[in-house]
Amino acid sequence: MNVQKHDNFRQAASDKKRTKPRAPHRVKPPKEKLGRKDYEAELERLQVELCHLQDWVRETKARVIIVCEGRDTAGKGGLIRRLTERVSPRTFRVVALSAQGENERKKLFLQRYIEQFPVEGEVVIFDRSWYNRAGVERVMGFTPKKDVEKFLRNVPEFEQWLVDGGIRLIKLWLEVGKKEQDRRLEARIDDPAKQWKLSPMDLKSYTRWYDYSRARDAMFEATSSKAAPWHVLRSDDKKRARLNGIKYILSLIPYERIKRDKPELPKRSKKHQYDDRLDTSKVKIVPEVY
Question: Cα separation of 281 and 268, whole Å?
């Protein structure tokens, strides 16, 4: 009898557990707005670290690829500008390939990207990459489904080959929400300085939010590997996204500060000295309006 009661109690407890309502999802309160002064101070600090990374890349002859992907208006361009504005373009090179021309269509799909890969002592940042095939080409129907599926099967082996060959591969996906994308696209419509960013393709893509979401999910599922994982950067807050992105990239590369002697300016030679003031009768001087 006692055993029967015990079994009944266990069954009732089990039923109660199954029917217990889930706790309400707690929404994190919005973060306090990041002030420009704090943002610029932290950005300057991180950009100094990028200069140290640059020295290390040159010294060790490292090869680094940073892939920046995401929806339209996700902030890829802004992040890339902050990554590169204080370093040498001879070390940090940005690659933003246009649509394939007739001659490029004759190449293997990955060939045009491989041609842009870093040499020793170089960082290459792809503003969109070979993952166009898994994104816009898939969603907009530019590439047959079988070719997209073939790409998703093969690209992990390709990236494993890159990593095995000594390239440090960082794949960054900037994730922007629907409301924030709406706000940014509307700003592009109203701002003459930003209208060039709004292409007919952007307008077509805008209507296919969930198609892009499914393409993103399939891409992550097929191509986020141990050798080359995807790193998702939330970018609704542009300032925080730039700081978080730079800091995270720095954390993924085990660079060290290279010690160098502080240079001293040499004395100017007075050899061949002459009066080198400009002859204003031979040139036109730009008006000093400002």
Answer: 28
Q: Which of 73, 274, 278 is CA-nearest to residue 175?
A: 73
What is the identity of the amino acid at 3? V
216: tokens are 């993103």
> Residue 53 and residue 88: Cα distance in Å, rounded?
11
| CA atoms within 13 A of residue 232's CA, in its CB half-sphere | 11
- Give 143's DSSP letter: S
CA–CA gap between residue 100 and residue 113 (Å, rounded): 11
pLDDT along the chain (290 residues), means of 10: 49 50 57 90 98 98 98 96 98 92 83 97 97 95 95 97 98 97 92 86 90 97 98 97 98 96 92 93 94
**In angstroms, how far apart are the furthest CA atoms of the chain?**
116
Residue count of the chain: 290
Which CATH number is associated with domain 34-252?
Answer: 3.40.50.300
How many whole angstroms separate alpha carbon 163 and alpha carbon 152?
Answer: 17
CA-closest candidate to residue 91, choices 52, 127, 44: 52
